[in-house]
Write a structure and sequence with these properties.
Shape of chain A: globular
Largest sheet of chain A: 6 strands, mixed
Largest sheet of chain B: none
Number of strands of chain B: 0
Structural class of chain A: alpha/beta
CATH architecture of the largest domain in chain A: 3-Layer(aba) Sandwich
Number of domains of chain B: 1
Number of strands of chain A: 9
CATH superfamily of the largest domain in chain A: P-loop containing nucleotide triphosphate hydrolases
CATH architecture of chain B: Orthogonal Bundle
Low-confidence stretches of chain B: 263-274
Order of helices and strands of chain A: EEEHEEHHHHEHEHEEHH
Number of domains of chain A: 2
Strand content of chain B: under 5%
Low-confidence stretches of chain A: 262-275
Radius of gyration of chain B: 23 Å
Oligomer: heterodimer
Radius of gyration of chain A: 19 Å
Structural class of chain B: mainly alpha
CATH topology of chain B: MetI-like fold
CATH superfamily of chain B: MetI-like
Helix content of chain B: over 70%
Number of helices of chain A: 9
Mean pLDDT of chain B: 89
Distance between the termini of chain A: 35 Å
Strand content of chain A: 15-25%
CATH class of the largest domain in chain A: Alpha Beta
Largest interface: A-B, 28 and 25 residues
């Protein structure tokens, strides 16, 4: 990881200028994160810790005030389009069938429709979508919508994928099933994943390493390697090692929450931040 | 489960109540004119109107054809103007600021007041009628399409950017399809308005058409025949509305089917509770 990091973020800061005489807001301050090829890394943090800002910067949607985002050790000419990005909401297009939704990235890469369909259909079984190819997204359950959105991100074919709380809106049982399923899928093709969540257990269960962020300004306050054996089974969440990690991660999170107001509030960028 | 049964039941539930209500109103009307001994030149009974529709069918069809042509051309012009303005307004903030207020102000101008001007400029031919119909019916199309072009989720547009979609692709693949249901809502309102526009345009200056026919019949106090013309005009409006609705169903199957699922879910819940 030290030598050949896939994605490296160095000294990243972002300050939003206050509008209408408002004060400047520092959303991120000197954030550093490193992910090796094929690693699964999570970021946990309270609302307002700048996670979404960080993701938008890595995805190339907004520019940082200072700092660097390195892919394979160098700064890409254009960050936008270099990494796969899955927003919080599934963002499936209601006017496209499930199949045509999943091939969106391929289509924009110029892949012929027939070829794109073939490529997508080969994955439908693994993503638990078989039999729903011709359905409208509105007919899918919450879990299936997220799997379809994930397949769309997978098929876009970027080495690094940013997943912004993909399971945040699901009920507890579906969520547990989705975590297990995601681990299986990831185990098979070892894509590099950066995952954002509010849920410490989810972060530990899935990741090789967990960064804890605190806000505001958003900073990395802790970085913990998760050395639990893979493949992991859900029972692992009851093991002493797991609980120890959880305790270690929860403390800075509680402190962070105390300073930025609430752990469980949605962490969405304001309109101003998006513009 | 009982797809066919529920389907025919649903159609019956949609068609029967308005049909029964119409029969009730027509019956009451007939009864009133007969029992009250009302003069036909004041209020003709429905049977007399039906008779006039049949007897004057060639005159009605001839003039209806003229009016239908005006309506279709005016409606088409309204779609071009409405959608064109909406796309223009959504294409830049500056244009939106410059044009949108005037779009609203344009609706404060009473079209009847400028119709005579159009006659002066364009004469008694088709153009002034098409322009009046267009001016009367473009507004709901424009306003709905403007809202529709705002309807695509910002997250979806960002997602498309990360997939290297350029602004034309973002428009073509997200903003345009998201706007279509809104466009069709506007078209339905515009369909009704276009018939009103046609009648009005003909009142100001015409030598044929159903609106012109109403003026002529009014001078002769031919009330029964006037009712026949009104029924013909209403039929044209209803037909246009139905064509728009049918097109919507054909072009936006996802919109209807997605909504139906939600509706069914709701009914099931209600039934379970009951």
């Amino acid at each position: 990881m030290q030598a050949g990091s896939k994605l490296k973020i160095e000294g990243l800061s972002k300050t939003y200028r206050g509008t209408g005489g408002g004060e400047n807001v520092t959303a991120l301050k000197d954030v550093g994160i490193e992910i090796g090829a094929g690693e699964f890394v999570s970021i946990v943090g309270p609302s307002g810790c700048g996670k979404s800002t960080l993701f938008n910067i890595i995805a190339g949607l907004i520019r940082p005030s200072s700092g660097k985002v390195l892919l394979d050790g160098r700064q890409p000419d254009e960050l936008l389009g270099s990494v796969g990005y899955m927003p919080q909401r599934d963002c499936l297009m209601p006017w496209r069938t499930v199949l045509d939704n999943t091939t969106l990235g391929l289509e924009l890469n110029g892949v012929r429709k027939k070829q794109a369909h073939k490529q997508a259909l080969a994955e439908f079984e693994r993503f638990g979508l078989a039999g729903f190819e011709k359905h409208w997204p509105a007919k899918l359950s919450g879990g299936m919508k997220q799997r379809a959105a994930l397949l769309r991100t997978f098929l876009a074919g970027r080495d690094v994928m940013l997943l912004d709380e993909p399971f945040g809106a699901l009920d507890a049982l579906t969520r547990a099933n989705m975590q297990e399923w995601l681990l299986d899928v990831w185990q098979e093709d070892r894509k590099t994943i950066l995952f954002v969540t509010h849920d410490v257990e989810e972060a530990i269960y899935l990741s090789d390493r967990v960064y804890v962020m605190s806000g505001r300004p958003g900073r990395v306050s802790l970085c913990v390697d998760v050395k639990l054996d893979r493949p992991r089974k859900p029972e692992i969440t009851m093991s002493p090692e797991f609980l120890l990690l959880k305790q270690k991660l929860l403390r800075p999170l509680e402190e962070a929450a105390a300073t930025s107001g609430g752990l469980f509030v949605e962490d969405r960028p304001t309109l101003e931040e998006q513009l | 489960m009982f797809a066919r049964g529920t389907r025919s039941r649903r159609i019956a539930a949609a068609v029967l109540p308005p049909l029964l209500f119409a029969i009730f109103v027509l019956g009451a009307w007939q009864l009133y004119t007969v029992v009250g001994n009302i003069k036909e030149s004041t209020l003709p009974p429905p049977t007399a109107v039906a008779e006039a529709l049949w007897n004057d069918r060639s005159l009605l069809l001839e003039n209806a054809w003229v009016t239908i042509k005006e309506i279709l051309l005016g409606f088409a012009a309204a779609i071009v103007l409405g959608v064109g303005l909406a796309v223009l307004i959504r294409s830049s903030r500056t244009i939106e600021r410059a044009v949108y207020p005037w779009l609203v102000v344009s609706q404060m101008v009473p079209i009847p007041a400028i119709a005579p001007l159009l006659i002066i400029w364009f004469g008694f031919e088709m153009q002034p009628k098409i322009i009046v119909i267009m001016l009367v019916s473009f507004f709901p199309i424009a306003v709905n399409t403007i809202d529709g072009l705002r309807a695509a989720e910002p997250e979806l547009l960002n997602l498309l950017r990360t997939l290297k979609a350029n602004s034309w692709q973002r428009f073509r693949k997200a903003q345009l399809p998201a706007a279509l249901p809104f466009l069709f809502s506007g078209l339905k309102v515009a369909a009704a308005l276009s018939v009103i526009g046609a009648v009005f345009a003909e009142w100001v200056g015409a030598s044929e058409g159903l609106g012109y026919l109403i003026l002529v019949l009014n001078n002769q106090t031919a009330t029964t025949e006037m009712f026949a013309v009104i029924v013909t005009l209403a039929s044209i409006g209803i037909a246009l509305f139905l064509i728009v609705t049918l097109l919507e169903r054909l072009l936006l199957p996802w919109y209807y089917e997605s909504r139906e699922t939600e509706g069914e879910g709701l009914h099931l819940e209600v039934e379970e509770k009951a």
